[in-house]
Amino acid sequence: MTFTPAGGSPRPVSVRIGEPQLQGDAWVSIVELDGFRGAERLRVVGVDWAQAIELAARTVASECQRTGTLEPPMFPRPPE
What we know:
The protein is an alpha+beta fold. Helices cover 21% and strands 42% of the residues. The chain has one helix at residues 49-65, and strands at 2-5, 11-12, 14-17, 21-23, 26-34, 39-46, 68-71. Strand 4 (21-23) and strand 5 (26-34) form a beta hairpin. The chain is elongated and about 45 Å long.
């Protein structure tokens, strides 16, 4: 993926969304971001595995939209 910070030059970034794991009553997915502001690991919690993945993807989109753009974009998706 390519991240372009506001007023900056495009640079490659790495995004990994881990397989959701059941922990107690919640599903947890680990998001690894490398290249936005350095290396980051974020823990995302959902009520089921599908929500954990969706929230992980939304977290990536939110992290980059605050300071630039991501190609290819993740959210919002065009209507089907």
